[in-house]
Write a structure and sequence with these properties.
The chain has 218 residues and is an all-alpha fold. The protein has 9 helices and no strands. It is elongated, with a radius of gyration of 18 Å. It starts with a helix and ends in a 6-residue tail after the last helix. The relative contact order is 0.14.
Amino acid sequence: MYNLLLKDLKLGVNPWFIAMPFLMGALMLVPGWIYLIVLMYFYWISVPSIFAQYRGQNDLLFTSMLPVTRRDMVRARVSVFVILELLHIVVAMIYGLFTVRLYPNMDYYFFAPHLGFWGLGFVMLGIYNLFLFPLFYKTAYKYGPAQIAAIAAATIFAFAAQWAGIQSPYLSDLFNGSGADHTGVQASILAAGIAIFIAFTWIAYRISFRRFRQVEIK
């Protein structure tokens, strides 16, 4: 499993996509922006290119010839994406720490990058994984429809959450107002988001493996 993970990282992930979180994360420094978009660049830019590279290398056929199980093939691929997702979030969080200190008196219209906001980011990426992997592993080859569906689901959640945050005085106060100063509440939202991300990704992996077992590799 470990060697397979290294293979997927080295052969399928261009070093540019390791640098992407540091470049796109700098957008967190833009005052008052829609910060969820920073995380969206992962599935708008990185994922299609990574899938295309795997496909161009005929990675599925190559990997199937190695002494590895299909379970490990799915686990390694999901792990690669999770590693990149966590890298995007962690780097963006670091930039976000600078943001809240650079603009301490700013009135945010969209979600400010406090702890609770990152809980929403984890949920968004969890939804993305929940749609992407099970749909992709119906064939383990055609990634376009899976990518479109996953992007649509994650983006709908993101903009629905942001719209609710603008329309609801309670949510606005929770994320941008006095609630943002309550570390316990913010940490609870973050913890809930991480739990949902883990649960959705685990469910996606389980469904993907079951579907991949039925795929004929040729």
